[in-house]
Peptidase M14 domain-containing protein
Amino acid sequence: MGTGSERVAAPTCCERRPDAEEMDSSWASEEAANDPPGFSHLKPEQEKKVVFLTARVHPGESPASFICQGVIDFLVSQHPVARVLRDHVVFKIVPMLNPDGVYLGNYRCSLMGFDLNRHWQDPSPWAHPTLHAVKQLIVQMNQDPKVSLEFYIDVHAHSTMMNGFMYGNVFEEEERVHRQAVFPRLLCHNAPDFSFSSTSFNRDVVKAGTGRRFLGGLLDDTSYCYTLEVSFYSYLAAGSSAPVPYTEDSYMKLGRNVARTFLDYYRLNNLIDDNKPTHLSNSSLDGQSYHQGNGRNQDGEKGERRIHGSKEDF
């Protein structure tokens, strides 16, 4: 694909190593070949904005892989939106957090019989090696003053609900609650199969060990942690009562819409100021209306992170 790829430090119990894909403008630069992966195109003194995505922690939720594929395909394409995003943001993606479970055909658990998405608080390097390694990587980045880990999104599939939707966290600060609703609202505008009305924000005790809940408590209040869910079977488009079955292509289209929403988010908050023509309609995301290829380097300036949220109830 032309992206940078690195191995997560710890292999699984079956010696499988999950790859962590990195996407930014440096992967396309021959001059950056000897620079540290991921950050070489940015100014040394500049804070690096990072978006971190994971998927397939529950191995049976295969739609998550197609969403990740859509995100990756779009980010490495030559579309103007993708080029601007690569110039300003580092994307780190772990497409398969539970490769042993996927290989064995498990629905929810790892080789050792653990639901890895309940062990983020204290993962064992022996029993949950991939989770332990990914958590270490995130904690490392969070402690680096030159890195701003802005988003963590864990991709899942849902067996009973329709459409795509998100779970977010609940906080005491009202302003932080409103800020957290901005990204799902923007995604709802971009993706006809995404439902903001099905999106919910909670602090359910039984979900305390999930990536969304744990990292929501670990990271600072300028970081946003979500679970992105998508139906196994169908979605309802606005104004329609007839369910539309999901296909591999429509899952990947949702992934592309997730990727483009990051640019809407950063532009809304003046964190990306770029004059390139990056408007993108839903129709232009159908099929292969964009081309993969090398991006180009461009330094981006980071502004103050003040998010304009809505005060509507949700």
About this structure: The radius of gyration is 18 Å. Residues 168 and 201 are 4 Å apart (CA to CA). Residues 29-45, 280-284, 287-314 have pLDDT under 50 and may be disordered. The first helix runs from residue 63 to 75.
